[in-house]
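Q: Entry one of two.
A:
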Amino acid sequence: MPGHTKLLAAREAKVDGRYKIRFELLNLSSLEVERWADKPSSLSVFYRSQAPAWKARTVSIR
């Protein structure tokens, strides 16, 4: 996130034969997970500064 101390991390794991995707809002100084959701738009802090180009090109949103 430009100008912030936060980072959006996208995680994907195979659990019981199914893929689970989780988006986490991390504090850059401690790498502590502050919030998580099943889609990035649910993390309002990230959603406000989301660049349309990122959303169109990222492989983390399929």
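Q: Entry two of two.
A:
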Amino acid sequence: MKKYSFISLLLFFLGIQQLVAQELQVDVSMNGDRVQTQERQLITGLEKTIKDFMNKQEWSSDDFEDFERIKLNMQINLTANSSPAEQNYEADVQLLSVRPVYRTDYESPLFNYLDNDWRFSFGPSDPLVYTNNVYSTELVSLMSFYAYLVMGLDYDTFSMEGGTPFYVKAQEIANYSQQSGGKGWNLFGEKQDRIYLIDNVLSPQFKPFRAALYEYHRLGLDTFEEDPDNSRKVILQALKKIQGVRKNVLISIMLDSFFRAKSSELLNIFSQGDAAVIEEAVNILVEVDPSNANKYRKLM
């Protein structure tokens, strides 16, 4: 059992059926409208293959109940450079993971990222096999990297630095995938490349960010229904930690992803409450997430 051990045990002793499932619950949607091809079944087959790989692969030794599975949405938009007949694909991929909030039906967005550099080869008969510490194919590396990154972020919200083992796996994949020469794996490339996601989160400078992930979600959101005023104060303290990271790391793909996921949620959280807390939160948010500054100022 992973996160809700008490609840899972309670269900067990009450005789309610438990379903042991894989770790991820991934919804894959593939758009091939820009691809000039008569072989649409190849695109449909690729979509199913990616979904099956992400959902059926065992990514850890933990047992997950069905309600514990980590939800991830992958919107894969194939570009006009894709050629299914030649087994070559290029795509931009929007990834969005969510995290349930205790005692509510609300799912908090956790990771929101657009990767513009998916380039891979795949044929209908090609096996997709993930082997620890071994480069298989570009497609396997891309999927496995994000599987571990999303799991790391999710685990960090339930226990302090609980995601470390999964981040390490993602970093291993990024390191050995550099041999492929594929875009997005080069640490000396664009600072928006995927390798900077994992480089950010494992950097000692980001320890306060990871602490903030736990405080924001486990100590803030999960208690919001019981005591919203106190939860706002907890979330404010988490934002102060992130503010400190932003001051030291002005360009951060991980922080940008965090606020891309959280901006609407933060607007809702601080739309009510103590005026002094709201004012302090707004001042921080304007500084750390300037792209949404005008929206935050309206809370004043």
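A: Comment on entry two: The CA atoms of residues 6 and 12 lie 10 Å apart. The chain has one domain: 14-297.
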